[in-house]
Amino acid sequence: MRIGIIGAGNIGSALARRFARVGYEVLLSNSRGPQTLTGLVQEIGGPVRAVTAAEAAASGEAVVVSIPYGRHRELPAEPLRGKVVVDTCNYYPERDGHDPDLDEDTTTSSEKIKAHTEANLVKAFNTLPAATLRDGGRPKGDPGRLAIPVSGSDEEAKAVVAGLIRDIGFDAVDAGTLSQGGRKHQPGTKVYAQALNAAELDALLRAE
């Protein structure tokens, strides 16, 4: 599979490493242009190319969005329409500026990104630190294997993302729909920033 990544910060670059390590073709982009990613691409090695955000969106069979939530309106919406998009973003008012809809909990950050892109959006990879995503993958059956919550309203898209999670050494735990599930693993919840196995994560998600 060819994976586009929009955002080459801590989470985006960690996922680029993991996906490249298991053999996926990775199209990595940031807001400053491909020329600023030369060193990172060389460091990661393997099937990774630096491209523009528009190219990552258009050419990725699945696209990971890993940018500050406050900049989500800068995403190239047209090429993401109808595509499997993985939203790793978290809303931090002190960084992103206050969003009244999110402050009042009338919707979720993922639903707003979905509305902008019209993608088959799945929220994942937003609870664990970048270092854990980069180095924490374990083989199936390993007692130290960690789990990642997944929420979305398109079951086929969730299945695709769950497969990506398993391929890089984690278990996927279904948190529910984009609205209900997304609220269960956003910042401030019991599972956020917690290293949990699948059983532990599932139990906490059910308790939210």
Give a description of the structure:
With 208 residues, this protein is α/β, with parallel strands linked by helices. The protein has a single domain (2-207), classed as Rossmann fold, CATH 3.40.50. It is 39% helix and 18% strand. It is built from eleven helices and eight strands. The chain has helices at residues 10-21, 38-44, 53-59, 77-80, 93-96, 100-103, 109-117, 130-135, 155-167, 180-184, 198-207, and strands at residues 2-6, 25-29, 48-50, 62-65, 84-87, 120-123, 147-152, 171-176. An eight-stranded mixed sheet has the order 3-2-1-4-5-6-7-8, sandwiched between helices.
How would you summarize what this structure contains?
The chain is α/β, with parallel strands linked by helices and 208 residues long. It contains eleven helices and eight strands.
